Amino acid sequence: MNESVTAHPFLTAAFYKFVDLPDFVEMKPPLLALCEAHHVKGMILLAREGINSTIAGAAHDVHAVLSYLRADPRLSDLEHKESYANEPPFYRMKVRLKKEIVTMGVPGISPTRMAGTYVKPADWNALICDPDVVLVDTRNDYEVEIGTFEGAINPNIQTFSQLPDWVEKARELQARQGRKPKVAMFCTGGIRCEKSTALMRTYGFEEVFHLQGGILKYLEQIPPEESKWQGECFVFDERTSVGHGLVPGHLGICRSCRDPLAEGMTESPLFELGVSCPRCYDQTSDEHKSRARERQKQFVLARARGQVHLGEPQKQKKIADLLPPDAPLLYSFRRCPYAMRARLALLVAGIRCELREVALSQKPASMLQASPKGTVPVLVLPDAVIEQSLDIMLWALKQNDPQSWLPSTASVMDEQFSLIKQCDGDFKSHLDRYKYPDRYQLTDGLSDRQAGSVFLISLNQRLESNAFLSGDKWGLADAAIAPFVRQFAHTDPEWFASQPWEKLIAWLSDFENSTPHQKAMHKYKVWHPDAKPAPYPAV
Asked: Looking at residue 359, what DSSP letter applies?
């Protein structure tokens, strides 16, 4: 076994790649579910322009995530940098969607086409010792403060988006004898330099270089006795900084502003553990500092008990109290109208259940075992499985119907069932073709929009005579049909709002602004087998 794995059980992997990912939004749910299933923590940023991440966990779990990513042909050559630590570098897992994986804010910059020349760590020293080369540190000022390359220029920026303004004004970058200088740029992992060197080329700099793999790769490969690096390298995790060999440094971090604590800062009267440091003391209110003191107090108490304090223990106890062992399991997908109407009925009936949000591209084996049809919603009871949304509604309301959603007579029940059948039949078919014409090899969905409007016109006429589809109060038909009308309306909101369906539009607006709708649409993380139980309605 690798000695580093034995001595330092937490593997940190840092990686990025600029590549066109038009489906980056759809990539998030299964990727987050996979990371959580493997107990991997950290941050992954996804954008149309690529992926940027640092994650940590047990070595085999981190490599499982990397293998999953590389199974995508667009990421097959994804490179990563590794380091090991004794303590977990992260306490949470987040996958976030961004406009840019590193924000510069300058349109038209394309690292895949315009980046400068890569320089391997082994060749970096020779380059930066060239007197004709201007060496620029592209990181934020607090990062530069704790370590940088000998002779590097510090632009004194607080965010990467400030770099373009500095480049335009920097005297060090002005032309010499009619020629722009050579420029070498570096950053922590290499990602900023992909964009910054591309930016330089748009300004007419022809000889632009950047350190391949960034400072981290340099510190990993270059021995201290040959190094031009001075100080430590700030990293955005619980290690705070690393040195040569990527060994965790000795610097602390301010828990308030999350900036590193440079030498001598902890001796300042403005430093208070977990509350403030000389950089942020004047930037936070007394109320903020009071909350930080309480958080620090709870952190210390939790550590003394051998626990990790993230504000979760009380929440998890409350969840356990709300979900008895025999609580129903609801497999759901937030935006699915069938699942939405099932959640509405369970909510009004006061039936608490464990909700398992499903990524349709990765349906859990437990759901497929309970219901081979593979569609949501599925309600798993101790002694039965209910696979149809309308059946779930009826089951819930028969347990408890405090608002009298169920019709009181057989004739009214038949009338509402007929209305629901029209919704689930022809109207749903037209809705699908209107919303997803490509799935049905259609040029557009306009003809199906027109055909589906026939049903909506009939609903508007019904609402002209009654306050609700179910009669004089909201009921079964309203709850069963509203999610489908909502989906139709959201396909082209401006067109829908322009139609002469005053009563229908007002009815839908009242539904979407209602408390039951807000509760039913609460966002849940995609479920995986190791996830903590999530109650519905949400805590």
From this structure: B
Prior bond of 224 cis (ω within 30°): no
Judgement on whether residues 124 and 206 belong to the same structural domain of the protein: yes
How far is it, in rounded angstroms, from Cα 344 to Cα 358?
18
CA dist., res. 508 & res. 501, Å (int):
11
Segments forming the whole domain that contains residue 151: 111-234
Residue pLDDT, tens place only, 184-242: 999 998 888 888 999 999 888 989 999 998 998 999 999 999 999 998 888 876 677 88
d(CA 528, CA 32): 9
User: Total structural domains in the chain?
Assistant: 5
Q: Are residues 30 and 116 in the same domain?
A: no
Q: Cis ω on the peptide bond leading into residue 30 (within 30° of 0)?
A: no
pLDDT digits (tens, 9 = 90+) for 122-179: 999 999 999 999 999 999 888 898 899 999 999 998 888 889 999 988 888 888 777 8
Active-site annotation, residues: 187
Q: Which helix (H) or strand (E) segment is 227 a member of?
A: none
How many CB atoms lie under 10 A from the CB of residue 365? Answer: 9
pTM of the shown model: 0.51
On whether residue 16 sits in a domain, the answer given is yes
